[in-house]
Design goal:
By secondary structure, the protein is an alpha+beta fold. The protein has helices at 90-105, 113-137; strands at residues 4-9, 14-20, 22-27, 30-34, 41-45, 48-54, 57-63, 66-70, 74-79, 82-84. α1 (90-105) packs antiparallel against α2. The two termini are 30 Å apart.
Length: 139
């Protein structure tokens, strides 16, 4: 099966670099499915789950936004933040979800509502990605 190179980089590190068969990413206008020989494009990414598949193996990641560029031979993602499913600490993600929900319940006029909602969304995505991996592995 044909492959394309996927490279995911944040400001801190290279998160993922491998040849894959398909990339499914959360674009600003919906999910993007990218196969080898895809037409070149550049778009922004929304927070969400990013999935790469290679020969039946699936690699799930939590991405909090960024940019995706499809080149003739590879996909380059410059992410605001990105965690592989196996790196997600479920206890920390649950604690972050609870903190964000508490902030939203008891919000004050001076609180940045958009920031609190974004924190809740990030924690929910992290939990979703971690739970999906857990179900898939039968843990």
């Amino acid at each position: 099966m044909a492959t394309l190179r996927l490279e995911i980089t944040t400001a801190e590190r290279l998160v993922f670099a491998d040849d894959v068969n398909i990339v499914v990413a959360p674009g600003i206008e919906g999910q993007l499915g990218i196969l080898p020989h895809h037409t070149p494009l550049m778009t922004m990414l929304m927070p969400g789950e990013l999935v790469a598949r290679k020969d039946g193996d699936e690699f799930a990641m939590c991405i909090t936004g960024g940019f995706l560029e499809v080149r003739p031979d590879k996909v380059v993602i410059l992410a605001d933040a990105c965690e592989r499913a196996e790196e997600i600490d479920m206890e920390r993600a649950e604690a972050a979800r609870k903190r964000a929900e508490e902030r939203l319940k008891s919000h004050t006029p001076e609180m940045d509502l958009a920031r609190a909602q974004a924190a809740l969304q990030r924690s929910l995505i992290r939990i979703k990605v971690a739970e999906r991996r857990k179900r898939k592995k039968g843990l």
